[in-house]
Amino acid sequence: MEEESNSSDEEFDSSVEDTEESDSWVDNTEEESDSSDDDPELQEKQDRISALPDLLIHHILSLLPSTKQAIQTGILSKRWRNQWARVPVLIFECQEYHDEYFERFIDNSLLLYDCSKIKKFHIACRFQGATNFTSKILFATRRNVEELILDFYNSGDPKDAYMLPKFIFDNSSLVELQVLSCEFQVSSMVNWPSLKALTIDCYCLKDAGSIENILSGSPSLESLEIIYLFSVNPIIVASKSLKILIFADIKITHDLEISCPNLEKLSVKLDKMTENIPSLPDKTIVNVLSGSPLLHSLELMGCEFKQLVIASESLKKLVLDRISEYCEIEISCPNLEELNWCGSDIEKCKLMNLPCLCCATLDFEIPREGCDKTMARKILMEIQHFKELKVRNSFVKIQYWMVHVYTAEAPLTSTCNQNCISFTHGKALLSIITRQMFDSGLSLF
User: Are 16 and 28 in contact (CB under 8 A)?
Assistant: First the structure.
């Protein structure tokens, strides 16, 4: 057993020396460790480090940003030299252009790895077609990896994307999976019985039906995030287990159907850079709200509707960003606590039944001339219970918002600094922040 250990050490030293010839992926620390024997003070510190139990050492190493750094801790003590090989976390990252030395470093590390179970396996680098990452992923899956993160960023051309191996779609140990900048094609049945969180950066995913296959094969899935999806077919998301659903920078040409009775958070951000992309049907959000009684957070960004009615008793946070200025918006949420509303026409907005609102950020499209004081008054009177208000728009209009709403029965006091004006009205503190505060001039009374 001792001879095998010595042989393993010699093999690791030789692999380190090979990588040092170019980019020095791992420092050769043997000489520095040996020289520490001449320093009594340093030797005493090393003895304390060496006395730590293995479980604690493994926990410390698992918190480091990369496996490379975990290996480098061998300088602390001879006992630490091979501890990294027993840590159930492997993280390989190459910030610069991928080269053969980075791949050789991964291969040498896996050759010496001595842990039968992997909790986290992470590879991030610029993918090149000649690279064989499939064998490395297979190494992790054979050790029942629970958290798998693959980030092979490339030029953005789908032809350069890494094709995800088929065996990854049949895995009972995966709990969390992040697949970034990979070609994600589900050609067979998915079997992810333990998967709870999935993130797909799938600009190559053309088949929206793959989402249905994923959901049908992931009965425990609670969080699904899909980025850069382009679909020419209707997107159907139906899951009884899903609690968090996020669409970011997606392009769709047909309906988005969501049927998730236990959904708690929904975020939809459409890619507005592509022309001739139709708006979402008005019924989309209405159906989500009626079919998701536990929904407490709703974020809609870059979406276009003709009419948007948001009526929910469970909703506590609402974000509306860059909604079509021609859209008529009506909000009635008795338990809403936080509202972030940007880019709408104030004349087409209607707020009702918001007694619990305590924090609001409003960025309405208010014309510089002829501001509708009546509409501003109605909005503020409806949300008068809030404690903090941030208004980002033409500051000269704030005088209409404030003076015409608050009366002499509730005196208004204010303080001002370079970035913020705070108004105190009764028990409410209104923090008014604007982009053009001093450009427009300060005239409240």
Answer: yes
